[in-house]
Structure formats: C-alpha cells, structure tokens
Amino acid sequence: MTFAMPRAIRVALLLSILAVGVSARAVLAAAPSSSDWPQFRGPHATGAVEAGTLPLKWSATENVRWKQAIPGRGWASPIVWGDRVFLTTVESDGDGEKQRRGLYLGGERPEISPAVHRWKVMCLDLADGTLLWEKTAHEGPPPSSIHLKNTYASETPVTDGELLYVYFGNVGVFAYDFEGNRVWSKNLGNYPSANGWGTGASPTLTDDALIVLNDNEESSFITALDKQTGAEKWRVARDRGSNWATPFVWRTPERTELIASGAGQVLSYDLDGNVLWQLNEMSRNAIPTPFAHHGLLYVTSGHVMGNKKPLVAVKPGAKGDITPVAGADTSEFVAWRQKAAAPYNPSPLAYGDYIYVVLDAGIIACYDANTGEIAYGKRRIPDGKAYTASPWAYRDAIFCLNEFGVTTVVKAGPEFEVLHTNPLDEEAMCLATPAIAGNKLLIRTDSQLYCIEE
Prior knowledge:
globular, 38% strand, mainly beta
C-alpha cells in the first residue's frame, strides 16, 4: 500500500529540512576549531593557545615554512579559518612617505593624498602561501588622512566560518563568502579622527551581529549590523573622543556583554545597546583590547603622555558606576586595579595564573591574574625597543615582537628569564600582531607574510 503525501505537506517538510540545514550551518559557523584564528588575538581575543608543537625559535631562514610578498600597506593582523588565511592591504598609485619605526610625535600628516588607492582583501592557502583570490573592495582617493605609522588597512577582519567581514574605517564594511564573492557592503560614514591619525579598531562578532566601534571627533558610535545582510540592528551614540580599542564580547554564565574602551572610560553594553555599567578613571586614549581570563574581565589604557595608566580586573555581573572610590583599588565589582601598569599600544596577555604587560618602550612586567599583585616588576627586554604588536603565548613561553622584526621569547611564570631571541630580515618592520593556526605562526611585516613552523 502506498501513501501519496499532499503537496502542501511535502513543501512544508522541505522548508523545514532547509531551515534545519541553515540552522546547523549557523551553529557550525559559530564553533571554530582549535586551529582557527578568526579575529584579532584569536578565538577568545586572548592571544594565548595550548599547543605543543608551535615553534620556539626562528629566523628569516630557520623554521620558515613559506613567505609571501604582500603588496601595499596594512597593519591588520592575518586571520585563519580552516586552510585559508585572510588579510587586507591598501595599494596606492602614489609612492607615499616611508614609514619609520618608533615614531609617535611628529607623525601627523593632515594633507589627504589625492592618489588613487585600492582597498584589497586577500585569501592565501595556509599550506603554502599561494594567493587563492584577491578582491578590491573600494577604489579612489582616501576619504581622510592618517598618521605616518598608521595605514588605511589597520583593522583586522573577522569571520564566523561562513562569511568574512572586513572593516576599512571611513571607507565601509564589506562581507565576502570564502570564494571571494561580495555578499553585502555598508558605508558607516566618514568621520574626523584626533590629529588626523585615522582609524584602527577592529570589528567583532556576536552570534547574529557584527559589532563596529568608531570613536571619532564628530559623532562617535557603536553599532550592531546583521551578519547576513548588513542591515543596522541598532546604533548608540557615544560621548567619547577618538580611540582605537577593538570591542570585546564578554560571555559569562550570567549574560553576554559588549565591552568598549574609550577616552577616560570603559562602558559595557547588552546585546541591544543598553549600558550595563561604566568604569571611569581610565587613560584619555584607549588602544588595547579588553579580554577575559579566570572568570574576570581585564581592561586597560595607558596613553604615553598621560598620568592615568590603569590595568583593572572586573568581576561578572557588574552594574552602574563601578569605579573605585578615591584612594581605593577595589569596589564591589572591581577585583583589583594597578594604577600605573598599562601599555599604550600592545594589549596585555593572560596566560596561566599571570597577566603580562609589554610597554611600547621595550619593558615587560608580570602580575598575578587573580590578585593583581606584582610577580615581577618592570624589566627591560634585552635590546628591546619600539613595541606595537601585542604579545602572545604558548608552550610556557611569552613572545614579544618589536617593530624591528625581532621576537624575544620570555619564560612564562613569576620569574623573568629570556629564552630566545628570534630575528627576521633586518629590513622588516612589524606592527601587526601575529596569528596562530594549529602548529603554524603567521607574522606580518611591512612587505611579507611569514609562516613559521617547527
């Protein structure tokens, strides 16, 4: 005996199956493997992994699996999903002024270049560095100026395994599939930055939205864009001046929060853009990315010319103004605060039971992650100078990359000990924070992408 299913039921069943497929794809996309590096500083924005075969030593020739020339300029970090490496760059028809290491003062370049620039997205094969595809997201003169040490491609892309999301500051947001087809794009506006320094805060992802933070001199905001369409779900104005800190998605058993560092203040938002809490008494410039470890949130900012350079550990469930009262370094929701510990550019690193801070001038310090007590005070990194890239960690070692392409490897733990010094090409200039993919380390210089493998 046969049963003829009515057409309406067949259609409904097919739609249900398709919906389940889409849902399953979304779930899979939200779960990176241990070898994926989907955003700035990795899956959890910490810069640390537990891996046994990553390299401890390298040079321009030792333990180099491959290197690939990268045209143009860009300080965005590479990201990795599966067997693909994604990164961005901007090429120009004009020669442009040569970038210099260690320059902060005097790098303002308020004149906007009239030369045609091309904002590009690149996809490389992780195995051998082969260029799989390259797409031009935008072409034309720049909409704004940048500092000599900045680039028009300094924001690191982010991916959920389904789409690649690229934010080029005042140019716009662009979403691509993994074959290089543009799915959507959105112009969020062109806003002036302090001293014409340009933009730098990278986007991040919640389960269903792309989060973009743009603190500028005219109309600062944080916004959530639908991942699939780019439609604006909400935008909240911020009473903050220019800053460059990437927002952080803090997931705790109680809730999920969006943490945004800004001028003099850290704000936490819920997933609808409502403010949950605020922390004041921060530095006037914010660059390091917040991160979580051992159940605490760590926030910091330390402008080199300022007198406020706090590193603060925040407890979950905070609400209202959580700033410690004058003379105190704790509050109901502040576990601890070190008032003079913060770096300017590099984000601190949590690894094991300790927080490591690398200062721009080549100094490292170590603090107890739970109490904030000093494990070892500020120590000079041998021959260390000019640090912009954030440190990273694996195999019980801390890695500190300076702008000259030299990585100093320091033993993890409460005692300062240098293990190795790993130079690249002496002409290399490095500001981008490296990426980790399985047993491979990816280091971007001003002209090359190195894949280091033991």
